[in-house]
Amino acid sequence: MTDIDNVFAFAPARATARAELTSGWLDGGTFVVYDAPRTDHAGDALTTQTALVTFALPNPSGVAENGVWTVGAVAAAMIAATGIGVWGRAFDSTGAAVGDGDVGAEGSGAMAEISDTSLVAGGYCSMVSFTLTEG
Question: What does pTM read for this prediction?
Fold first, then answer.
């Protein structure tokens, strides 16, 4: 059995509808990049993790097409703390957690790709891409 056998695959129209729902949750929200360790579940309380950089998501947040949500234009953000960015948490416009995902440098294939994962306080970081794929 492969990992794909344990995934519930949605019909394309349903996957796009789910991506549109997620898009609505993220409208005007934020995406915060943290250092390690990543929490076990999305929304778990943070313990030793440090928020390194917070990106303001646009409103509307992005586009959902063919089951894939892609963020719109995101402004560069000032880095708040020095560290290595390895994961991020998306929040809605009220500050409620929506979900967690991996973060990597441009070309890494991570859910969120940023200009550099070695972050230095006081500098700026750009979000290169941020996509969510509904299965």
Answer: 0.90
